[in-house]
Amino acid sequence: MTSVSDAVVLPSAEPSLLRRPRATTGFWSWFTTVDHKKIGILYGATALLFLCLGGIEALLIRTQLAQPDGTVLTAAQYNIAFTMHGTTMVFLMGMPLAVAFGNYLVPLQIGARDVAFPRINMLGYWIFLFGGIFIYSSIFLGGAPNGGWFGYTPLTSSPISAGVLPGRGADFWAVGIVMLGIGSVTSALNFIVTILNCRAPGMTLMRMPIFTWMMLVTAFLTLFAMPPVTAALTMVFFDRNFGTTFFDAVKGADPLLYQHLFWLFGHPEVYILILPGMGIVSEVLPVFSRKPIFGYQVVVFSGIAIGFLGWGVWAHHMFATGLGPAALTAFGLSTMLIAIPTGVKIFNWLGTVWGGSVRFSAAMLFCLGFIAQFTIGGLSGVLHAVVPSDTQQTDTYFVIAHFHYVLFGGLLFAMVGGIFYWFPKMTGRLMDEKLGKWTFWTMVLGFNLTFFPMHIVGLEGMPRRTYRYGSGLGWDVPNMIETVGAYVLSIAVLLFVVNLIVSFRRGQPSGDDPWDARTLEWTTPNPVPEYNFAEVPVVASRDEAWHRKYTEDAEGHLVRLPRGGADSGTAVATEPVSGKGAPPAEQGGGGGGGHGIHMPSPSYYPMILGAGILAFAYAAIYHSLLLCTVGAIVVLFAVYAWMLEPGTEPA
Amino acid sequence: MTTEIAVRTDEPEPSGTGLTNAKLAMWAFLASECLLFGAFISTFLLYRRRSEGLTPRDVYNIPFTSATSFILLMSSLTMVLALAAIQRGDHRRLRVWLIATCLFGLTFVAGQVFEFTEFYREGLKLSTNLFGSSFFVLTGIHGAHVTVGIIWLLSLWGLSSQGRLTKLDSEKVEIAGLYWHFVDVVWIVIFTVVYLIPQ
Lengths: 651, 199
Fold this sequence. Notes:
- The complex is a heterodimer.
- By secondary structure, chain A is mainly alpha-helical.
- Chain A has 18 helices and two strands.
- The two termini of chain A are 20 Å apart.
- In chain A, helix 13 (433-459) runs antiparallel to helix 14 (476-506).
- Mean pLDDT of chain A is 90; it is low at 1-14 and 565-593.
- Chain A has a two-stranded antiparallel sheet.
- In chain A, a hairpin with a 5-residue loop joins strand 1 and strand 2.
- Chain A folds into two domains: 1-34 and 600-651, no CATH class; 35-516, Up-down Bundle (Cytochrome C Oxidase, Chain A), CATH 1.20.210.
- By secondary structure, chain B is mainly alpha-helical.
- Chain B has seven helices and no strands.
- In chain B, helix 4 (62-88) packs antiparallel against helix 5 (91-121), helix 4 runs antiparallel to helix 7 and helix 5 (91-121) runs antiparallel to helix 6 (130-161).
- The termini of chain B are far apart.
- The chains are: A mainly alpha, B mainly alpha.
- At the A-B interface, helix 5 and helix 6 of A face helix 1, helix 2 and helix 6 of B.
């Protein structure tokens, strides 16, 4: 059940070069691990680091805008700040954080011992990390990206010599995003195959936890959204470096082509960001309401519907570009249409909480905060579907308010809630609830202080991406409030990080199932063994973990089953084998030797292959044949070694 | 432990879709590639009538490109024969057909290099006009895909020569074949849209 492609077994006489590393613990093991849980934690930790970087950039922006005619940043620095803030939050924080949850949870939720492609999984992480470092390294190597996170042409595509956009920033940005896209596609492939192929017996598609469902939809979106933007950025890069004329209007080109290609990626990207958050909320609400999710099928199918409709709305980002009445009408209507499955989900969540015995834990609070704030963001989103109204709002702070309500008030609240909820599974300790509630209320206060006034100044016409504004326009007070809010927000993030660190060190031991939860991951012992399940669970129902714990008596009252006493017999299968919880795993080698479970050994090659791709990226920037050769050699070496290394290293 | 590792059977791992992991991943990857080529082909189509200066009619040599296209399509046939050979356990023929596929592929790439040089000599460069930009980037990316395929097939040939590709590994050949056929099919679209449909 581990994996087909990675279980390459070859005749024993291997050159020592291809020996796989054995250590599965200790500092260096994090560089070679192929354990999806460790990779998930790597993704999460790195994404939180980038969250802090993006947050600092946001604070710079808000400090500059605190008062009219701000002098903290120059116009050029301001351009870099908002470009890097957007790029970081979308590509280096939002997507990887979702992948972090997916990596950790999907195999556990579907009763799998591993993902389908453990090494490709790790490769995705290295490409993400190297891609992030690559983009940020531009600051020291001739100018950071400064053309906005969607990098419109011909601004970004004009050759360096034209001097339209100073510095190499746009090159770093284009190549970096392509690189991150490769990483995202590898991880999407892994999710798709894992979810479709590696489910435990009985885990039918319609028994899968909603989070897993949403990760499946997200993976398909990623798979199809990345190629158009890769093509667009390739053209940008060629225009800038090799004299092509893809976006040169003088030569008859259509700069709108870029916008179409970019938003054909960019709008599904919005759902790539939000669907995992919706999945998390759909997991947390039922547990803390002690009710199954209301309308499981509807939640799943509306998620799929969002996935499909998400492809037909991209041009609503381009209403101000003169597309013509037919296109405007069509895309306006499709945008209104996609509000329906989204709205349906909101009612499903309300129906889940309604009449439940609600426990207001920190995780629950963040998810309730998600519903409230995401709804506000969704409503302002529907306003954008109305073309005349959108024309008024284009490029104003109203748009900023809208997408921060869905992505910060929505996505990030769900993610933080998810961390509070799954932290015990990841560490065996509870996060501090009191501090968590303080974090929640500080974050709600700071968030709304920061972004609500943007609706108002936006409607009054305050343009986005402008590094200062004059006094006397009536924007002084709202902007000051926004800046104060941003600092309150940073306090909330600080509280959260402190909570993470303190709870990791000294948090209360949680036990295996602190929330009395419903899904399979909570049937594993803490810490989760490398092979997840000593015996692959046989799944008999949706909310499998719950049905192993509870049954109904004749009057329909909930009765707790004695541990291991389920009449179905399935519960016996996952009883911890020894009193300590985890069976004594043989260290090194395949791990889990006590059960004869073979897990793939760690591998060096994902890291080496990632480094080869990084060399290619720098070669593209500097037009360096030398770096290109180095990259090709490293990539070829890594690929061959990857294919030839044995599946497991005998202990 | 080692004895358990050494056991390999012909039975596929149980999977939700009935496809093995590697094959499902390849299908999904090819679906993704469709959009990459789709984006470049759309760009070419959009810019067909907007381009100024040299036109396709000025530079194309349709009989020549038809010949190399035919050779590329024939390589799909030899790829199928290679797969059939390893499935029968006929390793000698596997290697023959793999090499034949590579040679056909190489001929195609060589033809493309020749074609690019000719066009360049006739004055069509990347920077000449929209036709030059979109033509060279689209067909260049396709050529890069063919090149990757050739390296892949040569690697399989090398493995087979060392006796490291057994009958049980036929799926490795099959997956390389999926990629190879995909690249061929994309060429059918490119050849039709870019070369044959009159401007």
